Amino acid sequence: MKEIIKVENLKKKIGRKVILHNLSFSVDEGKIVGIVGPNGAGKSTLIKTMLGLYKITSGNIYINGYSVKNNLEKCLNNIGCIIENPDMYTNLSGRKNIELYANLCDIYDKKYINNIITLVKLENRIDDKVKTYSLGMRQRLGIACALVLNPKILILDEPTNGLDPFGIKELRELLKEVNEKTNMTIIISSHILEEMQKICDEVILIDDGNFVENVNIEDMKEKGLSLEDIFIEKLHGSKGQLR
Amino acid sequence: MKIFKLVNFELKKFLSLKKVILITLILILTCFGFIKFFEFNCNKNNIQNYFSTPIEELKPLLEKYKKDFEKERTAQNFYILLLLDDKISEMEMFNGEVITFGDWRSNVLDIIHSINNQEYFAKIYLEDVDMKDFALDKNYENKEEAQEDLNKLEEDKKPFLDIIKNGKYYDYVEMLLENEKESLKSIEGDIKLIEKNAVLPNYTAVSRLHNLISEKNVSMDKIKLYNYAIDNKIEDSSDWRYKVIQNIIFNLNNQHKILDNEEEFSYNKSSTSTYVTYENYLKQQQSLIDDATNKNNKNWYYLEHDIKPLTLDSNTFSMPYTTRLSMNNVYYMVIVSLIITIIMCGGIVANEHKTGSIRLLLTKPYKRWKVLLSKLLSVFTIFIVMCAISYIITYILSGIMYGFGDFTIPIVINQNKVITDVSYTLFTLKNMALSIVISLLFLSLSFSISSITFKTSVSISILLILIFVLSLLPLMLKFDAIFTYIPFVLINFYEAIFPHFNTGFSNINIDTSIIVSLIMMFVILFITFIIYCKRDIKN
B532 with B348: CB under 8 angstroms? Predict the structure, then answer.
């Protein structure tokens, strides 16, 4: 299987503080991969660095073969993303938001846009202003905005933050559906282990900016373990208090 | 091409139909306000009437004063009676017509009034009234002498009354011409006398000679002017050339006499104390004279080339308000557009960071500097479109109110003391362009503050305070040449376009200043772009 994301000795310093220490891992195409770690482990920093929002201190990230450091534009061409809560232009309608981003990437096909809207189940409220949307609807609209560009990779940073259980279920189903239909690689960062276990094919465990373990969920289930067990076992030394 | 797509994105996101309608309405209202303000400003000198009280109110007053006078035959009461009587008969003579200060007949009335005043003294002397608390300017020996004086004054007044009843402006000017020729003769006589008798040059003689020479020059200018009015048969005040002539006379009469030496300056210190030093005083006086000369050179250019002036550099005589004049002031709308743009777009970068929507935009496959540049270009576009709309609105509004005037008449400008005429449309467009270029510097500054601090309120308040303070600056201090390199003062578009010696703007080289301001703008933007592209987007 093709490696679509490759992180090599990634180091990120913010001010004097080192957030990521020589992080290295890779992600295969078509998988749903979770990035899991305790609060402050560097999940968000890792994702923002992948997207070029943070500048790389040293090391590199390759996305679809392009270097984030030197060829960010080409990397971003393959990525759709939502970071924390999706912040849309709340004064505009949902449709207008999607169209704006679509036009920005040369997509003008109204039928295609409508298909995406149906996919995220927003067709009834799409012409209302975003400020009237609930958080779950905004989340789905954010995914629509990301999907409309037909990316190879979808990156979601803490997508379940603030969602009710029903919303979380909806999101999970939506992501699974997208992954099955388009073979899109999906990267999700979260600290809700149960959720990650349900949705991901693979989980990358990081702690304090260090790579800890790459867990294959199927193998794990065969062994009769849960993600929580592995999480606590691996982080016991430094984060024993978690118990 | 990519950048245009981004600009398109920004504009679509930013401009809703509601916003566009609101801004257009604001612009229409401000344009209307400015037009009305400038019209008022232009006409306010002509609004004052020569007769302020209606004749119907004066007549009962006359009866009352007559009774007062019968009761108490004092000189004071008699004087008031005479004054009122004359005023009423004068108003009857004009048969309800209102004479304004801009009317040539008001000048003749002034002469008649001064003669009237002398007549009152003779009349009071003849009337045998109580002279308590009243002093006559003239001391008559006997009644015959007073009567003789009165008759003589009546004779003097007659030609003026005839002119005002039946005459034309050039009849009046003809009379002035004769007077001026007489006084010129006496000035020349005096000059010869002093030149002959002043064996040793002393202060008094030299200074008197100087004054006489300047008086002689003024006299000769006036003679030239009167001859022009007679040759061209200027009939009344409605002729624009009348106003130009009055304006030239106004400037000639206002040329201050320079005190030639320090001794005399110290002697007159009480009246010249504002100047502190003699050098300062000389400089100030010379610039006043230069200014008057410049203005009159321009006025003569109007007459000689038969160009109807747009406006006159005078507080006393103004041309009627026209659409052309509206267009001349259109750059005031640039500053309005600038303020609206700063308030509206001050948060174009900061707000996206506040709401976090910038993350979504920056993760689209565009270079970061292109995203920032597109925001800057959108701000510029909104501003320039707003200026263009103001230009069109002003033209249409004042066209409806004052007629779509003749734009083929050129405008006369004073360029480095050389008077030339240029195409009017070109002139207004050039001014507009100049104002816009200066404004771009302010917009860039606002944009930079917003992009670096991520705080909308900081960028808006700094810029508004800056604009406010800088607009007041010319009132507070006089600019030196150094301000050429501090081009922010150019926000005073009016002074930048029509440099005036009073504010010292004539010391500033506008062309260099514009270049400096452009360089400054690029430097500010360059630094902002570097900082913005290197930083982590934390929010």
Answer: no
